[in-house]
Amino acid sequence: MGDLARSWWLLLIRGAAAIIFGILALIWPRMTLLVLVIFFGAYALVSGVSELIAGLRHGARARSRTWLIVSGIIGILAGIAALIWPGITSLALLYVVAFWAIFTGIAEIVAGVQLRKVIDNEWMFIVGGILSVIFGVLLIVWPGAGMLSLVWLIGVFAILYGIAMIALSLRVKNFTPGAGVP
């Protein structure tokens, strides 16, 4: 805890950076989405190249080596696609979230109906599932608004996270090693 107290200012900087990022995401949501897609593309490209190299240099069995090579090639292709076509990449991500929400919601509805025999208030599980399905369908129907709302959620999260980090930094700044220890 003493090390954390001595480096309290790092938490403060981290919190301030998160708040600035969050505000910028709310002010410029389209630019934020583009930057996030470009970062994803760069990450996928670097990850793919490292997996490909590992697969080519890997001395293990042919099957694990093949998976590393295939995974590396897919990562490289995904990274290139994200950098060349950022709009399509962001739309594909939105559809992944939408279909995940729909399938998860259906599973929750089914589980809630089956739980009716076992527990009370299973309706909350069913309502959660219905809301998840509605969310997924809305993302499919209005993808532009869905992408914008995801960026807004990221922005709000970053601001709240930044506030928490700043509060933590000020709290640990005042920590005295040995205080409260009998």
From TrEMBL:
It comes from the Bacteria. InterPro entries: Acid_resist_chaperone_HdeD, DUF308_memb. The chain crosses the membrane at residues 7-28, 34-54, 66-85, 91-111, 123-144, 150-170. GO terms for cellular component: plasma membrane. Keywords: Membrane, Transmembrane, Transmembrane helix. It holds the Pfam family DUF308. This is HdeD family acid-resistance protein. It comes from Nonomuraea zeae.
